[in-house]
């Protein structure tokens, strides 16, 4: 297990802490460069800018993806640590020194998606590790073999246990519960964090390489992550329950005019489009097309989810 301690914008932290944010948050970086310091489920801790040399909260790393500023706002909203898109853009250009907005009005950010975030009240802030000093600008990675990892991890465990006991953590996720229970169950272990709607969208988008799952279209702003088994009917925010579809087809899929055959993974188009709307010829051209396969490392659509949609949603 690893832990990353990231230098954190104080206003970003203040807003999310005051709102008690519990859904995914975006710890964005203005560079757009890849972030590979930790892996899925590892701890990502927030360390405020000097003179506040304290670790003040954290979350669990899900994935780092490049997104334009506008798409990051559309995906995470106030989970970007800003009250408006305009405020977020101001901060982006504040940190992108030398880059004027008229030259790059919608810059690409490195969006570090964190699940199950937690924020410590001031009396529980953890002093920064002694090694976290000097020229560190962005952050520092610690491994389970490092003494300072243990120092911080133990403090995080105590804090989360206290917060859970005071019911400040209303609904601890699986990864958070693992940290709370670690004193009883041995060394720290990585547990996949719980995804919400924002994380679901990001993960499904990445699974299909930002391409429409049927025709390979790459116009990301019109592509949406669709639940196969509806979330309102017990479907999970998981890649195995998602498809990346063009916005109009997403709606048709949700309404039951499209389905995917569970075994051959071929598109099915309901005759009711023609019967009800007397059109839809370009949709019928999709009949029999084979669904794209997610890239290595992501789950394929679960046959049980496709079967549910076919039997319970599809109009036939």
From TrEMBL:
GO molecular function, one term: endonuclease activity
Superkingdom assignment: Bacteria
Keywords tagged on the record: Endonuclease, Hydrolase, Nuclease
Segments forming domain HNH nuclease: 213-261
Keyword Nuclease tagged: yes
InterPro entries in the cross-refs: HNH_nuc (IPR003615)
Name of the protein in question: HNH endonuclease
